[in-house]
């Protein structure tokens, strides 16, 4: 019976902290009659994670790729036309806000894809699972965007009650 080898990377906080718990659940659900190897180490996904030409197959899901590496300065600047007052996301925001988020996402994805290109062997494969919608579909009609907007409303409600800051 073949061995299973898994490499995991997380910074241990923020949106990536779930990795620790989900990994434990995964490995405890496997058959005890097999040998399993897992390696976890801290860091961010947007730089190189593994040795050059060391991976034959890579899988990432949108849960890893939907987070921006940083908040854009213009989105937080009250004097900027791209200020995103009261929102944690770009849904229902001005065109300048959307463009600011888009520019940061493109930078992050370029870094991500360049790093993976170095790590994958010639002829290797990468699967990226991301939600998509047909061209022309307004952002406010996409389910994941509605879910994030709901989270933003909850956080703003907490801010108004003084439980957190805006």
Outline the secondary-structure elements:
Blueprint lengths: L3 E7 L7 H11 L7 E7 L12 E7 H4 L7 H4 L18 H25 E10 L13 H18 L6
Parallel strand pairs: 1-2, 3-4
Protein name: Probable S-adenosylmethionine-dependent methyltransferase At5g38100
InterPro entries: MeTrfase_7, SAM-dependent_MTases_sf
Keywords: Methyltransferase, Transferase
Keywords, separated by commas or semicolons:
166 residues; Rossmann fold; two-stranded parallel sheet; 5 helices; 19% strand; globular
Report on the structure:
It holds the Pfam family Methyltransf_7. Keywords: Methyltransferase, Transferase. It is a single chain. The chain is an alpha/beta fold. It has a single domain (44-160), classed as 3-Layer(aba) Sandwich (Rossmann fold). The chain has 5 helices and 4 strands; from the N terminus they run E-H-E-E-H-H-H-E-H. The chain has helices at residues 18-28, 62-65, 73-76, 95-119, 143-160, and strands spanning 4-10, 36-42, 55-61, 120-129. The strands form 2 sheets. A two-stranded parallel ribbon has the order 1-2. Strand 1, helix 1 and strand 2 form a beta-alpha-beta unit. The longest helix is centred in the middle third of the chain and has 25 residues, at 95-119. The N and C termini lie far apart (54 Å). Residues 14-18 have low confidence and may be disordered.
Summed up:
The protein has 166 residues and is an alpha/beta fold. The chain is 37% helix and 19% strand.
Strand segment tally: 4
Structural class: alpha/beta
Helix content: 25-40%
Total number of helical segments?
Answer: 5
Query: What is the fold-level CATH name, i.e. the topology?
Result: Rossmann fold
Q: List unreliable stretches of 5+ residues.
A: 14-18
**What is the averaged pLDDT score?**
79
Q: Sketch the topology as an H/E string, one letter per element.
A: EHEEHHHEH
Termini, distance in Å? 54 Å
Radius of gyration: 19 Å
| Apparent shape | globular
CATH architecture: 3-Layer(aba) Sandwich
């Amino acid at each position: 019976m073949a061995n299973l080898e898994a490499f995991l990377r997380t910074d241990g906080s923020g949106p990536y902290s779930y990795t620790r718990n989900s990994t434990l659940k995964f490995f405890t659900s496997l058959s005890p009659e097999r040998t399993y190897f897992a390696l976890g180490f801290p860091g961010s996904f947007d730089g190189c994670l593994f040795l050059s030409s060391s991976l034959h197959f890579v899988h990432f899901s949108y849960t890893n790729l939907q987070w921006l590496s940083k908040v854009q300065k213009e989105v937080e600047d009250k004097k900027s036309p791209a200020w995103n007052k009261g929102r944690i996301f770009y849904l229902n925001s001005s065109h300048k806000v959307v463009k600011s988020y888009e520019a940061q996402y493109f930078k992050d994805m370029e870094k991500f894809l360049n790093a993976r290109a170095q790590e994958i062997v010639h002829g290797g494969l990468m699967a990226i699972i991301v939600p998509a919608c047909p061209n022309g579909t307004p952002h406010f009609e996409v389910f994941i965007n509605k879910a994030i907007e709901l989270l933003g409303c909850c956080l703003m409600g907490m801010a108004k009650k003084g439980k957190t800051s805006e």
